[in-house]
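ok trying this again, last paste got cut off
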Amino acid sequence: MKIEGFRLKRPDEIEKMRAAGKVLGACLAHLAAATRPGLRAIDLDREAETFIRDHRCVPGFIGYNGFPNSLCVSINEQVVHGIPGERVIEEGDLVSLDCGLILDGWWADSGLSICAGVAGPEAGRLLEVTEEALRRGVAAAQPGGFIGDIGHAVQSYVEACGFSVVRQYVGHGIGRNMHEAPQVPNYGKPATGNLIKPGLVLAIEPMVNAGRAETRVLDDDWTVVTADGRLSCYFEHTVAITAAGPEILSVRPETARVEG
C-alpha cells in the first residue's frame, strides 16, 4: 500500500523549511571544517549543539527515541547512529556526521562524511561514490516520478562502482516531524513506489558500504556497524520537490537546484 507523505501547502511553509535547512547546512559545513585528527567525537557533538542553539534552533536529536546527543558521529566501519563519546579521531579516519534541528516547528535533517587528514585509497573512493550517489538520488526525485526512481539511481550507480547500499536503513519524508511517510530506500526499481508530487519533502540519504551490505547494531542499541568490519560512508540532504524539480534545502557548497 502506498502511503501519502506530508506535503507543503503554502509558500511560507517551504520558506520555513528553507530557513531550517540553511542553518543545518551551515552547521555541517562548520563541523566538517573542524573535523581533524586528535579531536574527540564528543567535541564535535558539543560544537554542533552550540552552533544550533546560537542560531535559535533546537537540537532535534537530543532525546529523540532516547538518543542522548545532538549529533551522530560514526567512524570507519560505523554506518550511522554513532553515539559521540571520548573516542579520539585518528589520521585517515572516515567520519560520518548526521545532524537534525528544529526551527519554529520545522525539521531539517542532513549529514556528510569526511576524512580526517589524508584519506586512504578505499576511503577516498568511497567518499566520492557516496556523494555522487546522493547527487544522483536527488536528481531522480522529479515531480511525476516515483520513489523507486530515487533508490534505483543510487543503487545502480553504487553497485556499478563495486560497493553496496545498506538496506536495513532508509531515507524518509520530513516536515513537522523528522520521520514521516514515505520511506525512501537506497535501492529499488524505476516507476515503483509512491508518486513524487510537488510539496513533498524528503530526506535522501545513501549509506554505502565498501564491502557487503549487511549491518549489525552494537550493544549500545544505537551504533550501526558493517557486519564485515569494512568502511561505510553516508551523505544526506533534505530535499523539497517543487514544480520545477528537486531543491536541496540543507544547502552546503552544492547548488540548491538540481537538474534532472
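PB: full thing came through this time. Residues 254-260 have pLDDT under 50 and may be disordered.
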